[in-house]
Amino acid sequence: MKSETKMSNLLSDIPRRNAFNVPDGYFEELPTAVLSKCSVSKVKKKPFLASKPLWWSVAACGLLLLGIWFAVPNATPLSDSLLAGFDFCVMEICDDYFLDLLGSFDFFELFNYDFFDYH
Amino acid sequence: MNEDVLIQQLRCEKSRNFAFRQLMQQEQEKTYRLIRRMVIDHDDADDLTQATFIKVFEKINDFEGKSKLSTWIYRIAVNETLNFLRHKRRKLFVPIVDVERQLSNKIDTGSNFTGDEIEKKLQKAILTLPEKQRLVFNMRYYESVKYEEMSEILGTSTGALKASYHIAVEKIEKILKSD
Description:
- The complex is a heterodimer.
- Chain A is mainly α.
- Chain A has helices at about 1-5, 10, 25-45, 50-70, 80-105, 105-119.
- Chain A contains six helices and no strands.
- The radius of gyration of chain A is 46 Å and the shape is rod-shaped.
- The N and C termini of chain A lie far apart (about 135 Å).
- The model of chain A is unreliable at about 110-119 (pLDDT under 50).
- By secondary structure, chain B is an all-alpha fold.
- Chain B has nine helices and no strands.
- Chain B has helices at about 5-10, 15-40, 40-60, 70-90, 95-110, 115-125, 130-140, 145-155, 160-179.
- In chain B, α4 (about 70-90) crosses α8 (about 145-155).
- The model of chain B has no long low-confidence stretch (mean pLDDT about 90).
- The chains are: A mainly alpha, B mainly alpha.
């Protein structure tokens, strides 16, 4: 409070009144004006695509996928490895099938038959 | 009305509008006057006062009750005002002095200032102070805000605020004497 007590007569002589004019009825109308804006902002809904969390999550997913892509550079593409496995399975099944077929067939009988018939 | 009861009513959907009107009746004039002394123009002060109370309405659930409700409202008003002045400066691409000169001209030309010559001189002298010092001077000189409350509003120590006020008084007296 020292500065106030030391204040010269020059400043302390000036009246501390509010010299800025306000339009008539301004303070009576102000709460209504503010409340009308508050209710507008409360009712106003953001469209789904304009929501920030959505775009942040899309960006995060994108970054995550990029990270995985670069973090595993030598990995065989998923589709190729699947196809390779599929080919191998098919070949194995075919081999088994033909072996079974061959095993059940009497070649010698056929050979003999043809042989005799031919001659 | 007790402040705690008022806050409870502000947080309740049913009583919110009624409580908000009461809060505004308590705080609007003081808040408006602080803003008006900083921006001078009524329309700007009106916009900033409305923006302040809209924020109060929207953020009342974030109010932690560490300070008085009026202190919290003052802090929002100060932030809004300082942001407005900074934005104005950036928008106009003009040095600090020019914005203050513009505000000073508004005191001369504006019909909304009813003070006499010495009051005009005082307002112009206040406009020569840096923004924060101007805030400190206006709060202490016109509104008699305590240094402790000012410290909560501005986030500055009471010692620094006292020094700032003292320097502001000296500067203003120097200007008034020189004219």
